[in-house]
């Protein structure tokens, strides 16, 4: 899932300083699962904001809404009539959701309420870890299902580098060395010999380096055109 | 001969080679580089010039290489994968060749987290093994993209690093093999402060015949203090310092003299070890000690090749 973390309240209050009425918009997708911007977080942040502004003597009216997903245009229809009456929208969705809100409401100010962190997994209560960087050309088939792009601090393809010790990465004793994990897993699977092969230079054009990416699937576009 | 550098000639002639290392300064004061080169001149075949070592901005290794050439010393340019993409790296290789630089050493590079710009972006467009492949391709006349180069290809003697002290232990030998497969001609090891582990590693290297495919120079660092030794043992990722070394230093009256003695004994020992083609002496901020070590280890004068 996409993992996000709510921005500090002071930063958010700074965004909203000139507004009297906002919509605080949660998302029922990833940010609900990672407890950053679902209905519950909307409720908590909504009262915090109202309280802080009441204390300043400049009340803020907060309309709280949470929709199914903010990364899909269809779900905005239900709130369109209410958006008309607010000064701005504070979105607690990931960066994709926030941008979709801005696109759906071109005349409305939209503020980001979270920092979108990474594509990752929930490891433990309150702990998430990065797993994928959407490089566009997956190499997990060669690396025992462990991603060197996202999980090696240097995104190298022929690790581990000389900084790997006791299974940890040179950047920190809390960070597993991805290539040590790959090595151990391939050993367990009886495939460690495959690490003798030199993985070739990556074609980064499938990643962000090729410019903003877009996916068009003609099988679907043609079908919908019928 | 691939590039005909001093280092290559010495190793190809089968002499026990000696390389040194110079860390370019955090300023544009090129005289510092030349000063260090002059201290070691005649004692080493060539001198590594680090590329923004530990991710701290320093005078560029290629510019430092040119300063060395001017001082009639042979440079080994280090190139790390952290700061440049394949376009910039290949451009630098051509530039280095145009200046007369023949030895290039490919490294991953330390992560920028511990340098003086921890907020920077890192590149790692290619990794160190892929960089070796790229250098090998360039000396055969091809850019990484496969496009053919115009004119003579650059002459490069390709170096790399090997770290017998990192993990997983057995894989360290495989990784050296990958570097040899990629086209590396010589490797310099991480500084050797645990002889037992190094010997075990060399056994595996010999078992695969790797020493016949790539020249291995063992890393030597004379220790100056117990504190430095313990720091390396405890805080530098991928380093090991054996207890006997720490104990010897602790017992010594003159720790620096003991550190030098230890380095000399290591070299004497390595000279007899099958598959070790030479030593790489890293005495950063203690360059003036290199002549003494080389002399007392019986490696001076250097053979003419
Ligand atoms: S290789 Fe690319 S697509 Fe596959 S997990 Fe890693 S970053 Fe994601
Ligand atoms: S120690 Fe492991 S994870 Fe860290 S940079 Fe090196 S190979 Fe990558």
Order of neighbouring strands in the sheet with most strands of chain A: 3-2-4-5
Number of domains of chain B: 1
- Count of individual helical segments of chain B: 11
Mean pLDDT of chain B: 97
What is the CATH top level name of the largest domain in chain A?
Answer: Alpha Beta
Average residue pLDDT of chain A = 97
Describe it for me?
Chain A is of the alpha/beta class and 226 residues long. Chain A contains eight helices and nine strands. Chain A has helices spanning 9-16, 30-33, 39-55, 80-83, 95-104, 148-151, 178-188, 218-225; strands at residues 2-6, 21-27, 61-67, 88-91, 109-112, 114-124, 127-132, 168-169, 172-176. In chain A, the strands form three sheets. A four-stranded parallel sheet of chain A has the order 3-2-4-5, sandwiched between helices. A three-stranded antiparallel sheet of chain A has the order 1-6-7. In chain A, helix 5 (95-104) links the parallel strand 4 and strand 5 (109-112). In chain A, 35% of the residues are buried. The mean pLDDT of chain A is 97. Chain B has one domain (6-296): TIM Barrel, CATH 3.20.20. Chain B is 41% helix and 14% strand. In chain B, strands 1-2-3-4-5-6-7-8 form an eight-stranded parallel β-barrel, surrounded by seven helices. Chain B starts with 5 loop residues before the first helix and ends in a 9-residue tail after the last helix. In chain B, 51% of the residues are buried. Classes of the chains: A alpha/beta (226), B alpha/beta (305). The interface between A and B is medium-sized, with 32 and 36 residues. The complex binds iron/sulfur cluster (SF4) (2 copies).
């Amino acid at each position: 899932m996409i993992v996000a973390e709510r921005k500090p309240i002071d930063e958010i209050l700074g965004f909203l300083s000139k507004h009297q009425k906002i919509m605080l918009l949660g998302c029922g997708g990833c940010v609900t699962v990672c407890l950053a911007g679902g209905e519950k977080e909307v409720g908590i942040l909504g009262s915090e904001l109202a309280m802080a502004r009441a204390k300043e003597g400049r009340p803020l009216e907060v309309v709280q809404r949470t929709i199914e997903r903010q990364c899909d245009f269809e779900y905005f229809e239900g709130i369109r009539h209410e958006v008309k009456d607010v000064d701005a929208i504070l979105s607690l969705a990931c960066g994709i959701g926030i941008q979709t809100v801005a696109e759906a409401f071109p005349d409305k100010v939209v503020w980001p309420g979270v920092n979108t962190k990474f594509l990752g997994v929930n490891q433990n209560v309150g702990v998430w870890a990065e797993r994928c960087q959407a490089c566009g050309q997956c190499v997990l088939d060669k690396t025992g299902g462990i991603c060197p792009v996202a999980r090696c601090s240097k995104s190298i393809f022929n690790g581990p580098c000389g900084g790997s010790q006791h299974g940890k990465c040179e950047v920190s004793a809390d960070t597993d060395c991805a290539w040590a994990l790959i090595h151990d897993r391939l050993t367990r699977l009886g495939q460690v010999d495959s690490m003798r092969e030199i993985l070739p230079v990556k074609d980064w054009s499938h990643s962000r380096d090729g410019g903003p990416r877009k996916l068009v699937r003609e099988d679907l576009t043609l079908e919908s055109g019928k | 001969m691939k590039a005909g550098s001093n280092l290559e000639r010495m190793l190809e002639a089968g002499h026990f080679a000696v390389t040194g290392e110079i860390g370019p300064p955090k300023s544009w004061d090129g005289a510092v580089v030349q000063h260090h080169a002059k201290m070691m001149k005649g004692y080493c075949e060539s001198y590594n010039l680090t590329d923004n070592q530990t991710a701290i901005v320093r005078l560029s290794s290629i510019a430092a290489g040119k300063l060395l050439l001017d001082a009639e010393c042979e440079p080994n340019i280090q190139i790390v994968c952290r700061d440049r993409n394949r376009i910039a790296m290949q451009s630098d290789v051509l530039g280095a060749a145009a200046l007369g630089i023949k030895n290039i050493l490919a490294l991953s590079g330390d992560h920028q987290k511990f340098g003086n710009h921890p907020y920077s972006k890192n590149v790692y467009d290619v990794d160190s093994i892929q960089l070796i492949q790229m250098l090998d391709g360039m000396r055969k006349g091809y850019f990484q993209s496969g496009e053919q180069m115009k004119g003579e290809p650059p002459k490069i003697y390709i170096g790399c690093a090997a770290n017998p002290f990192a993990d997983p232990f057995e894989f360290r030998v495989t990784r050296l093999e990958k570097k040899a497969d990629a086209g590396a001609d010589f490797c310099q090891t991480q500084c050797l402060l645990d002889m037992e582990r190094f010997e075990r590693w060399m056994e595996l290297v010999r078992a695969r015949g790797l020493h016949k495919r790539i020249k291995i120079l063992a890393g030597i660092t004379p220790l100056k203090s117990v504190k430095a030794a313990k720091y390396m043992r405890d805080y530098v990722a991928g380093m090991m310092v054996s207890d006997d070394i720490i104990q010897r230093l602790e017992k010594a009256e003159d720790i620096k003299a003991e550190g030098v003695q230890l380095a000399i004994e290591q070299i004497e020992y390595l000279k007899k070890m099958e598959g070790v083609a030479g030593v790489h002496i890293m005495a950063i901020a203690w360059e003036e000690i290199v002549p003494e070590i080389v002399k007392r280890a019986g490696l001076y004068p250097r053979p003419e090749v």
